[in-house]
Please model this.
Amino acid sequence: QDGPYTSLFDFCKRVDRSCVNRRTIEALIRAGAFDTLEENRAALLATVGRAIEAAEQAERSANQISLFDDNAGELVELELARVPAWDLQTRLREEKAALGFYFSGHLFDAWRDEVRRFAPTPLARLQPSRSLQWFAGVLTAVRPRMTRRGKMLYALLDDGSAQVEVAVFNELYERHRARLREDQLIIVQGKVSHDDFSGGLRVTAEDIFDLQLARESRANSLRITLNGNADTERLRQLLNPYRADPENGLPGVAVEVQLERDGYRCLVRLGEDWRVRMSDTMLDQLSEWVRSESLEITYT
Model:
């Protein structure tokens, strides 16, 4: 009625808050309705309380009699909260919490580029094979079922190209129960065959991985590019907490350091004692130090 909204504060002042309450505004932010005003949804969500308070203060001031009728009811806009923007995974999960589905993309997009390096086949293009295949998707549902072979669980995976139900034997499910959570990336090594009963495919998991386990199973090395003035002590501090433990079945991945300076390049492979677990936390810490483009996971 009075033109486009100009900010979250302007919105909170102009709407009827008895109809559009705080919970509704938060849902609109999670769904992306305010993106044309501010792309940082995390900052908007953290500021909702103050925006409503500012709108209420402006309303109280407008209802008071001003001796000089100056600026009564004027909205005082504050800065948005200074918080980091959500990453793609968080943004899509928040969309689903508000809407019941992903809106601006598919959650699998957050991992697609890396996952396709060792599980290249989209779910829509799975074909029967005698060999084990690697494939991946976001877990959307799990349902149990009793069969002649005992209890089975069926995990529904979705990679944006198709949804595929994967049969998981109970023993395998119990081993990976903590990983089989809704909206989590699941990577499967399994069998794909014809299902004579349904005429479609029968997909059975032989093993299940999260991204860290898949990296450690399939990666050849973690390559870190540094310039000639790199702080090797800092590198030691970052890697040390994530060193592998082969005696307990955690062999980790080899680390390669590529040194570059004055047009020269030297690749150094660290000793076996410096193999590392491939956790997201370690990679995030390394990315903050050397930039993400200086990190490369090489796959066989």
User: Anything to note?
Assistant: The first helix runs from residue 8 to 14.
